[in-house]
Amino acid sequence: xxxxxxxxxxxxxxxxxxxxxxxxxxxxxxxxxxxxxxxxxxxxxxxxxxxxxxxxxxxxxxxxxxxxxxxxxxxxxxxxxxxxxxxxxxxxxxxxxxxxxxxxxxxxxxxxxxxxxxxxxxxxxxxxxxxxxxxxxxxxxxxxxxxxxxxxxxxxxxxxxxxxxxxxxxxxxxxxxxxxxxxxxxxxxxxxxxxxxxxxxxxxxxxxxxxxxxxxxxxxxxxxxxxxxxxxxxxxxxxxxxxxxxxxxxxxxxxxxxxxxxxxxxxxxxxxxxxxxxxxxxxxxxxxxxxxxx
Length: 294
Hints:
This protein has helices spanning about 5, 25-35, 65-75, 95-110, 130-140, 155-160, 165-175, 220-235, 240-260, 270-275, 290-294; strands at about 10-20, 40-50, 85-90, 115-120, 125, 125-130, 150, 180-185, 195-200, 205-210, 280-285.
């Protein structure tokens, strides 16, 4: 193998929704990962004209047997060794979870150090926006096998089955969730008028905060998961990856909001993905598992 081949970026399989217009689901993830230098194999779980938040939208969900066959063929692909990570997001049907899990297993069998990042896209402050069976499939089938999970605060609440009114409660729920690394978006902030991304792994509890922007466009969670994955695959430490990911996503959000955009304007602000200038507050928190390990 040549040095050039050895040093080539690892491919990422992204499995989520596809919209014709907008920057959510795979549209956000693929753009971010490819902009940051990672080849992408993209698999749609559902096809829509736009995010349903803009109005009623036609849903084209692949028949489950065809979806399973597609992922099974990818699992047997001659180029599977190129893949260094799998990222799953929104599911169009709860039955898709088993096929995703099987593909993750095939990738890890080929490349044991491959990363699986699960973004359990199921709801927000208004409650679940997927059928409960789909949410259960993500919680019970995909979260347990993930190396990294990126729920928002409300998805973590549903997974935990209890309200998470403060940072302490969010950290405790994240610790119990299962994956060794949890990146919780929309976490309570310690700064007034702010919001945060909480990162919890085996020995660190970190909070990256920024100013809250009201009524943000959709797709922030999709973008955060993709950018954080790219940072980790590039060899960044958890601290640096969290800080630079939060800065990049916040910068794109702030610029989109200033222009009055109803979708994240990734193509306009692509430079922010690799070289964000926004300042975010990073805090080192007391790890909730420290007392248990003492």
